[in-house]
Structure formats: C-alpha cells, structure tokens
User: What shape does this take?
Amino acid sequence: MQTIEILGNNDTRSGFGAGLLEIGKQNSQVVALCADLTGSLKMDAFKKEFPERFFQIGIAEANMMGVAAGLATAGKIPFTGTFANFSTGRVYDQIRQSIAYSDKNVKICASHAGLTLGEDGATHQILEDLGMMKMLPGMVVINPCDYNQTKAATIAIGNYVGPCYLRFGRPKVPIFTPDNQVFEIGKALTIFEGADVSIFCTGHLVWKSIQAAQALAERGISAEVINIHTIKPLDSEAILNSARKTRCVVTAEEHMYNGGLGDSICQLLSRNMPLPVEMVGVNDTFGESGTPDQLMAKYGLDVKDVVAAAERAIARKN
Amino acid sequence: MPSIQELESIASQVRRDIVRMVHAVQSGHPGGSLGCADYLTALYFEIMNHQPDNFTQEAKDEDVFILSNGHISPLFYSVLARSGYFPVSELATFRKLNSRLQGHPTTHDHLEGVRIASGSLGQGLSVATGIALAKKMDNDKAYVYVNMGDGELQEGQNWEAIMFAAHKKLNNIIATIDFNRQQIDGSVEDIMGFFELRSKFEAFGWNVLEMNGNNMSEIIACNKEAKALNSDRPCVILMKTEMGYGVDFMMGSHEWHGIPPNDEQLARALNQLPETLGDY
Assistant: This one.
C-alpha cells in the first residue's frame, strides 16, 4: 500500500485565509466580508493587504449575506466569513432568496463546522449545513480535507462564477495533499485504489479514512479511498465506477446522516446501482462540549468507526 | 423631461395595468402597488438616470432601484415595461406558467430591470447597501434607490442594514418607506406600533425627509432635496401613501392588500383611471 506523507499540520481555516489572500492578489474584484470573527476565520492577512476591500459587518450575518448579494450585483466577488452555523442556518432565507435564487456570485465561507469545533458545544457545532446548502438549486458545496486543499479550493471558487459554499474547520489536522494542487470543482480524488470496499469521504474524515484503509490493509482488506471534496455537484461517474468494482460502499463525514455526503451517495446508488452502504456520520443528534478528539470518538467518527463500517459493508455483499 | 401632468398621465396608465394584471389572474397585490404608483412612475420616468434599452446587472454609472417589498410586483413590472425594459405585451403573462413575470420579482428568468429576487421581506435594504458600497469603491457617483413597506420594518434585518449604511456613510442611498400604515392583518399601529419613525432613523444616523407619495410635484421636489443634502448620511424618505390610491373603493384599507377585483370591480376601477398610453 502506498504511503501518504504528512507534510505538516495546520487548520483548514488557515488554508482558507491563505487562499483568500492569494485570490485577492490575482483578482482586484475580490472583496471579503466578516461578521466579527476576522481572527477566527484567518482573514487578517487579506484585511491587512487590502483594507479597502475588506468589510467588517459586525454581528449581523443576515445583513452580511444581503450586502454580499449587492456587491456581487455590482460585479464584485464577495467572500463572506463566519462560523458554519452562522453562515447557513442563521441566514438560510437570505442565502436562498438574495443569493441562490438571485444567481449571485457570492462565496459563503464557513469555518468551525462540525463537532471538531469542540468545547463551545452544540450551539456552534453545526452538523446540518451541507444538507441545507446542497438543497439550494445552483449552489456549489465544497468540504476540503486539509490546509493545502482548502487553500486551493478557495482560489478555485473565486475563479468560478456562481454561488458557492465552502466548509472548513477549526482544529489543526495533518496536511497530506500537495501544496501546488489545482483544485477542480466536482472532481473526486482517488487516494488509494482498492478492490473490496469503496470509502467515499469528505473533510476531516478523509485523513481518518486513509488511516482506516491502512488498518484494513493489515487485515487483508483492500479499500479504495476517494476524497469527495465537492458534495455538489457530485462526481457521480467516479462514485459509480468505484462502486461497480468493489460492490460495497462506506461514506464518512463530519455531518448528520441526513443531508450529508452519505445521503447524496445513497440517492445516487439507489437509482443506479443498489449496493450495501454503511454510513459514518452523526445520527440525528446534537453535539456537546469536549475536545475534538473526544467528540469524534464519542459520536462515532473515528478511524475505528470507518474500519468497522467497511467490515459491515463487506459482510453485506452477496 | 416629462411635466408633472405627463407623469400623472403615465401613472394613470400604470394603475390600469396593475388592476388589469391582478384581475386577469385573480391573484396579486393591488393595494400597495396602487399606493406606490406615483413614486415609481416618477422614479423611472424622471428621477433616475438609467438605461432601459441597455440593461446590465452591474449598472455602472447608472442609478439603481431595488424593490424590497416584492409583492408590489404588478407596479414594478408595469413601470419597467412602460419605461422600455421589456415589451409591454409581456404584462399579459403576469403570474402565469412559464412567465418571466413571477408572482414576486426574480432575476432567475433574466427579466430586464430586475437585479434581485424579493418577496421574503426585509432583505432589499441590505442588497441596496451592498450595491451602494460597490459604487463607492468604484467611484461611481450614481444613486441607489430602495423601497420598503412600513410593515416590513418589523423584519430585524432592516435595522442591521440601517446601522451598516450609516456606519459606512453611504450617502448614495435614497430609501423610501411606503408609509401607508397598513399590513396584511390590519393597521401597522395595531400590529406593531413603531411610530415614530423619524426619530428612529435619525438616531441611527440617517437623514430623514417626508413627502406625500401620492402627490407628483411633492415627489419630484423631495427627491431633488434628497440629492441636494450634501451630507455623509444615507437618506430615507418617509413616503405617506394611501393603499389603493386612485381607485376609490380600494383606498384606505388593508383589505385590498392581496385580493383581486372581480369583473364588476375592475370596470369600476378602470372608469376612474384614464387609458393614456394604450392598454397592453
């Protein structure tokens, strides 16, 4: 089995900050808006470099989405920054009407998604955001896995015309994708080829799925691991090709079963290629306070959970 | 430049369009549409510097109007068509299947003149503020106009935008509040009596003007005054209107907020509204 080299350790939100600065240098129409979380979103560098293109909106997320829609109307490329909870649920109707239905070129950039936000607890740990965003017609939904990929994804959405939701997180996690990657929206990335089970994973669960595949290999199981960084549009071809080969599927994400990547893949498979699917995700419950590692363990989002899901999926094959 | 009399004559045709459109599909919102007909006529035929025959979303160096209370779409569509954004004949498709003239305005079907979807209330001022901000960045001297209902001010997002626009010194915004004191369930005063509006806006750092929105001369004069303020504050005009203005039996009541006239009522309404530009 191919070894995956760890290149460093950093949070995905810092990848967003670096990508925002970079796309800001490339395109003078890029502007950034933040609702009183500039440091948390790592938008300081953009703010320092382009003070006239950075707008502090205050604790007023609904207004931030509307202002972004207005800036986009006038030809700007706005990136909004706040926590994932306040980027979605709090402002769903503003996004729905003023951005998605109005076809505005707004980039909704959301940090601290999921359980790994940690000690702040369930008020801030949104596990429904992918579902809300993917239900909006025309919305691109992206959940990159590490610092480098988040940076590349930030640049990619800046170059794409249309509304996008970019989800990233708080804790430092291993960096294992190349620093010079070109991010292709909607293109799944195969990390390991395998024969026995397909593991489709996204965000922080990609690294855990890599570790799971390594553990499975020690037990003689060949797992295919595919990074689905784009939840919408889904790379149906890559998913179906892999599933056709392995005949069973695991999905892994830091999100509810409802509305997440697993939900999308189940829809795809049930229509095209019904096969056993086991899902790693959160089962219809809120989170709680704790360290990221404790929470991922308690809510079943750990390496061992991906391993167990793969074994269950394989056992269900005819 | 049209005279006051000419503007009034256009407004009469716009009102005919409104009642005919709402009658034809037996749905829509005539009350607020009629009340704001004089203002939007003045805006599109006199006040704004805009290019109906060369519509762009970006509107560089052009004045922009954002309709926040999207339910007065019959008025919006009539004024857009009559000022040349799209063919007047298209008014006949209002609220029908496959029409670009949706129940509430949308950009989704590329209807010329519409820059944002509205209908879910309280969002238009934020959007207008974003456009105004972009114009400042681009050193574009044009104005951004935005109309809201008075009941609509119950939506909290407006007050976020009101704060933001003043903080950013967006003196290129001229907002109007359709101050007809009526909303769906009754009078604004009974439902959420937030009068006095002047002091609220002043406390938030806005310039406040008042006008009778059903008096063409006053509308023109007040808008000239708004542009001549020479202040770093955004401006709001408290626009007193009569819901249903121009059709006697629709005036002064919230009853006609969202119900269509029947055949007999249509005939009575049209009798009061001279056909000046030709019906669609």
Q: What stands out?
A: Chain A has a mean pLDDT of 98. The CA atoms of residues 17 and 42 of chain A lie 5 Å apart. Residues 10-175 of chain A form a domain with the Rossmann fold fold (CATH 3.40.50.970).
